[in-house]
Amino acid sequence: MDEFELIRRFFVREDEAASVITGIGDDGAVIRPPTGKDIVTVVDTLVEGVHFPRDVLAPDANYIGHRAVAANLSDIAAMGAEPRWMTLALTLREVDKTWLTRFSAGLHELAASHGVVLVGGDTTRGDATVVTVQITGIVDPGRMICRSGAKPGETIYVSGDIGDAAAGLYLMQNPPGQFLGPHDYLQRRFMFPTPRVALGRFLANKASAAIDISDGLYGDLEKLLVASGTGAELNLDSVPMSLSLRRSFGKEQQLQFALCGGEDFELCFTSPESLPSEIEGVQITPIGKVTKKSGIVCRAQGDVVPFKDSGYRHFQ
Length: 316
Hints:
The protein is of the alpha+beta class.
């Protein structure tokens, strides 16, 4: 099977949107965005051995396709945009038809659930599996959410529970027999994250700044604050964690997963408003305040707690 047959068999779909003038099969895609909309484009790469374990078996390959789309949808959500079109660049060591069937199913299923159409891409042979997805979305002019809008005095919020995905990956990489409690939930939170697209679009009217949690809550919040020229007080006691995480690990490890683990694809955002505890069916939790002084001051039970971010950084 050559690359053209691979693309035709596993990635071409006949149900292209009316906005796609020319899709898969030409040198480039031609898309027609709605009149009066701004374009938002995001891209993420998943590398075998870095973002998912090496040699993932064919029955599990659907989660890699799911995560590749979810990572991009989460970035789109953080911008308050609506996802529309995507491209895929896929590097494989070899053609495994069962693996590709499962991978493409996971990719297309999540994309279709958000109205996203695959319009092009590339396939190559390499020494490791590498998946790069680019998603383009639309947003009303002036309605996008950037990292740079946080103001002193505003409340810092997060969606969902934090730390589950990092704990799930840890359990996949280490024998879970030494732990107590349910682990399937945590592993599924890593494998099949839920991008908060509907929440992001709602926040276009409410949030002053936002970022998705992919590199760890502490590190991603720090990026938002630097972009805004502000600092924060972070209440560690308020960081929401699932019952599964709290039952499976001690308090110190829970905090490490939550603050440094990443891969949750939840949203961290600031707002001058007092927001409800649930928006678009998603739990919303206030975890701190934006301050004038740069840096993040962590508090637990009212006391300042020294904390050093040990989150993952490429090339370190």
